[in-house]
Structure formats: C-alpha cells, structure tokens
Amino acid sequence: MERTLISETPQSVGQIVKLKGWVNIRRDHGKLIFIDLRDRSGMIQMVIIPDKEEAYKVAKDVRNEFVIEVEGLVKQRPGGATKEGSATGGVEIEVEKMAVISQPEDVLPLDVSENDMNVNLDTLLNLRHLTLRNKKIKSIFKVYAEVINAYAKIMNREEFTEIKTPKILNSATEGGANFFKIKYFEKEAFLAQSPQFYKQAGAGIFERVFEIGTVFRAEPHFTTRHVNEYTSLDAEMAFIDGFEDVMDELEKVMKFMMESVNEHCREELAMFGAEILPVKSIPRIKLTEALSILEKEYGKKMEEVDIDAEGERMICEWARKNYDSDFVFLTHYPSAIRPFYSMPSADPQYTETFDLLFMGVEIASGGQRIHDYNQLISSIKKHKLNPDDFEHYLDIFKYGMPPHGGWGLGSERIVQKILGLGSIKEAILFPRDVKRLTP
Ligand code: AMO
Fold it and tell me: Is 92 one of the annotated active-site residues of the chain?
C-alpha cells in the first residue's frame, strides 16, 4: 500500500490508509491508547483498541518520537471538531496495524509535544535537533522559507539575474574589524562579510542581479539581532537615476514579501499572534531629521550624526504612529560612517545611502555606489585605505560602469520581527554566535 500523507486523510474517510511519521504524544484513556502522529504535512489523532491485539501490543511500548508506520481506517470524528492540544481536525485513524521503524536511543531530554515549549534560549539551541520538531518552533522555518521564496520570486519577476558569489576572499569587503581571517593554503584569506564587490561586478554585466547567500561577521557582541553567520538577500541594479530608484525597488520587494507571508503562512502567523500591516508607501526621512524627531519627541540626544538601537526603536514607533507604517527608510548617512563605495550627496559630508527599519530594527542597508574609477580611488584614500588592496575591485570600474546601487537585506531579522521572536537566533536553524559553534 502506498503511503498517505496526514493532510490527505480527510479525502479518505471510510478507507484504509498507510501513514508514516513520528509519535508526537501518546495518551492512555482506560484501555484505549491515543497517539498523535506527526508527518511533514500535519498531525492526526489515532486510536488503538485492545481488540486489535497485534497493533495494541506494539502501541503499548511506543513512546514520544518513535518513528512508526500504521495502517488504519479513516473515520469522521464526532462533531468534526479539533480537539484542543491534539491533531488534525475532522478525522481520526482507527489503527489496524502498527510497526516501529525507528526508536529513540535514549530517554527524551524534553517534551516537544507541547504547543508552547517553555525553555530558555540555550536549551532551545543546545537541543536543536529535537526542539525543531516542535510544531510551533518548526513553523518559524515555514515562514523563513516563504520569505526566501518570495524574495527569489519577486526578484526574478523584476528581471534580476540570480548569482552566487565567492565567500572566500583575499580582502575584507566591508572593511572595519568584523571580518574572519582564515588560513588558505599558504596565504591568509577572509570570509565574505557581504557579496558587495561581486554583486557590483554583476551589475556591470547583467544590469540587475540578486543573491541569496551566506555571509560572515566577526561581531564580538551578544545582542538579540546579531549573529556571526547569516543569510543576506542582496541586490544590485544599474542605470539608476538616483538612490530613490533603489528604495522604490526595495519597497516593491517588501510589499510582495509581506503579502506572500500573509497569504501562505496564515496558520503560522496565528500561532505567534503575529499580524502584518499592509505595506503602503514607506516613509523616507533624512537621518538628521530623524535625530531631531528623537530629540524633540523622545528627549533623546545622540552625540554624533548616527542612530543607535534605541533610536531605531523610537523612530519606528514614531513612523507607526504618524504613517501607520511598520517600515521606515532613514536616508543620507554621513560619509564618515558609510563604506568607501557609497556615493556622496551634493553636500559631500553625506551619502546617497539608506537604512530600512522594520518594527524597531534595521533590516537593510543600501544606496547608490560610486561608479567613476578616479572618484572611487580618491574615496578609498579618504577612508584611509590603500587602493592597491582593491586592485580587482577597481578593475570593475575601468571599462565602463553605469550608475548603480543596491541593498543588503538580513533575512533572519525579517522573520524575527514578523513573528516577534526575542532573539534572531530563534529564526536560524543552527545559529552561530561568539560562544556557539555547535550543534
Ligand atoms: P550591512 O553591513 O548594513 O550592509 O548589512 C546589511 C544587513 O544585513 C543584516 N546584518 C546582520 N544580520 C544578522 N547578524 C549580523 N551580525 C548582521 N550584520 C548585518 C542587517 C543589515 O541591515 N554591503 C552592504 C549592503 C549594501 O549596501 O548593499 C551591507 O552589507 O539586516
């Protein structure tokens, strides 16, 4: 008999089906044994009665997380209602045959059958292979997959070509100190902090490129929004008239992404009590303007022209109040705090760059890039870097490069914020932080 998926059982009422999956939980009521079976498509309640002697014998030894195979009759449940804490809804299985495929070697260190698992972050991550089996925790990654999927879909629709760029580099892309140095045969190399140089090269070839790729940051701090390895959703587009074009495009992307999650992840959003506001026109505010709003409305004064995590939270609160928007662009960051490749504004103290904030946190950075070879060399020098270290990057601009710009968008922060997760690490299957290289 072919395997039936749990989600397909409502179409098989009155028939015998074969199911395979994990025992989510087993409950005994008098002589009856109830098992909630879990497979990739859902969960279903099964009943084993003593009359089915062989199946009953097997069921008596079955515990949570056993992998089993059953054959049984699909029956309409009385009232057709979903029983709280159990499974599928309208149907259940009256088991005829049961066999154990695989069983845990050890006593389970925790129970993953609960709807809300009350464990601390360390336990959640230390026992990741197990905790990820929990329905609610697993559902985070359904939303994650939808975010990635939607990104690829909209980028393709907008005629961006998907590229993959190297992650082992001979120089640090973003500068600063947060790069990992590695031993590369006889040389030293760097792990890519972003695909910046290569996506710009891509824009000089394909006009429009995007990448979904792993990047590495040697951030030494513990925060709820930093990890040392994350998946960046990058884009670069040529023939722009200014960095407004880049923001227009990113706005389209965020709108599509939020609509897709809303449409395809209803159950997952409900589990987290999450609500996504429709994305309208995203307000664009100069950083200097944002700083005066912070000072006037929140009594917060920054020492420099820059914004910190608290300021970002406040500005998002302000945008929600004044624009009914969970998103806000901050624009025109000072050149001193932006990478050397950023295009200067008419007032060269500032740059044609932006950050996109979402529900209190920065999720993307981007802007227009310098495309003139000589201007780029002088910007490298102005940032106290050595043009000799950027020989191959500079080659991109030697042979005709159109005006271009793009963004880097942190995929995990989007999911963290949509679902209201306490830490970004909850939105990563196997996260890496300063102390964590396992599991
Ligand atoms: P930036 O360094 O601002 O820009 O990074 C872009 C976005 O990546 C995410 N991000 C992180 N997520 C988790 N952990 C981290 N340690 C971390 N660091 C960054 C954030 C951030 O907004 N090349 C430029 C982008 C560009 O201009 O195209 C860049 O990498 O969501």
Answer: no
Distance in angstroms (rounded) separating the CA atoms of residues 420 and 418: 6
Is-catalytic flag, 436? Answer: no
DSSP 396-429: TTTT----EEEEEEEHHHHHHHHHT-S-GGGGSS
Which ligand 1 atom minimizes the distance to the CA of 230? 13
- Please give the chain's pLDDT, 439 residues, in tens: 999 999 999 999 999 999 999 999 999 999 999 999 999 999 999 999 999 999 999 999 999 999 999 999 999 987 655 444 445 679 999 999 999 999 999 999 999 998 888 899 999 999 999 999 999 999 999 999 999 999 999 999 999 999 999 999 988 777 778 999 999 999 999 999 999 999 999 999 999 999 999 999 999 988 999 999 999 999 999 999 999 999 999 999 999 999 999 999 999 999 999 999 999 999 999 999 999 999 999 999 999 999 999 999 999 999 999 999 999 999 999 999 999 999 999 999 999 999 999 999 999 999 999 999 999 999 999 999 999 989 999 999 999 999 999 999 999 999 999 999 999 999 999 999 999 999 9
145 contacts: CB under 8 Å, gap ≥ 6: none
Active site annotation includes 266:
no
Separation of 132 CA from ligand 1 center, angstroms?
Answer: 26
CATH code of 6-102, in short, is 2.40.50.140
Residue nearest to atom 17 of ligand 1 (CA): 226
Identified catalytic residue from 26, 226, 369, 371: 226
Instruction: Please tell me the residue having the least CA distance from ligand 1 atom 8.
Output: 410
pTM: 0.95
353 Cα: distance to centroid of ligand 1 (angstroms): 13
CATH architecture assigned to 130-427 = 2-Layer Sandwich (3.30)
**Residue spans per domain, the chain:** 6-102, 130-427
What is the rounded distance in angstroms from the CA atom of residue 122 to the CA atom of residue 119? 8
Nearest protein CA to atom 27 of ligand 1, as residue: 366
> Is 413 an active-site residue?
yes
Burial of 387 (0-12, 13-18, 19+ CB in 10 A): middle
